[in-house]
Input
Amino acid sequence: NAGVTQTPKFQVLKTGQSMTLQCAQDMNHNSMYWYRQDPGMGLRLIYYSASEGTTDKGEVPNGYNVSRLNKREFSLRLESAAPSQTSVYFCASSEAKAYQETQYFGPGTRLLVL
Amino acid sequence: AQKITQTQPGMFVQEKEAVTLDCTYDTSDPSYGLFWYKQPSSGEMIFLIYQGSYDQQNATEGRYSLNFQKARKSANLVISASQLGDSAMYFCAMGPTGGFKTIFGAGTRLFVKA
Output
């Protein structure tokens, strides 16, 4: 039981390049999330997927797209990377338990855009 | 607007002593949940404790307890008998019950002294 896995762990991009961050969970959770964490700040929600087949914008969606490939996998795509997207990206998943939507996080992807 | 405020950027505590990390919040949701997460220097996000807004009793999980004062809109984390391994960043978070848009505070960095 690996929980939530993310690939890659670290990536360097040049401005304008594109890339996809991969996330998978093996907990049979319905909901999945993408966050970014910038220095001195908490996590900010980029996109979420309440269930397979649905996606919705979070607090900071501009510059990103997502795909909920199946129940297990939720990817985040940067079409044209910008230095402002340098951050640590976390994927999370959750399954409501007695109305408690506790989220379980992956190890994070550190992205540097030059 | 929903908001989470953690006013202590850094805290020091002596090993084996108790420490309280402050968290205040603002929300218009009638039902919500409050969470605390720990982020060690290795970077992963670890769920610690949850409190529902309609829970009558304060939540406890081992050495962690949540001092929930609904009228004051505060949800402070109390760590008893601090250990060196408790040195980490701690984030308070809030989300609507059954909802998906969890917001996080900026975090408090805790240093445990031997």
Observations:
- The two ends of chain B are 41 Å apart (CA to CA).
- Chain B has a mean pLDDT of 94.
- Chain B has no helices and twelve strands.
